[in-house]
Design brief:
Blueprint: H1 3-25, H2 30-34, H3 39-46, H4 48-58, H5 72-85, H6 93-100, H7 105-114
Amino acid sequence: MNRFEKIIYTLEHRKAFKKVERILFGKKSKMWILHDIEKPILYLILGVKLGSKVHRYFSKHHVQSIRKRKRWREMVVDWECARLTKPDKPLDAYETMKKYYPETEEYILPILKKVNLV
């Protein structure tokens, strides 16, 4: 996927994020406004591979982030909506946690239970 296709992919993901957040939590918050907002710029400047790596390194809604305080709720919404717009990511939030990030269960599972995803 070239950088322009990846930008469109990201913008579609942001729309889905907004919709899923509203469904799960009954409202939209500033989370969706800021979610992945810098990715298109990173893709243009750094390219897709390095831009994605930098995004995951600094964004609190990624397990790989160096930031100490994670945004667990945003992570749940991100994982849940990824399957709607990203053919390469078909798992729901619970399946994503179990398969890729079991170390986050302590933080993620209560959120999943609260929004009836388990």
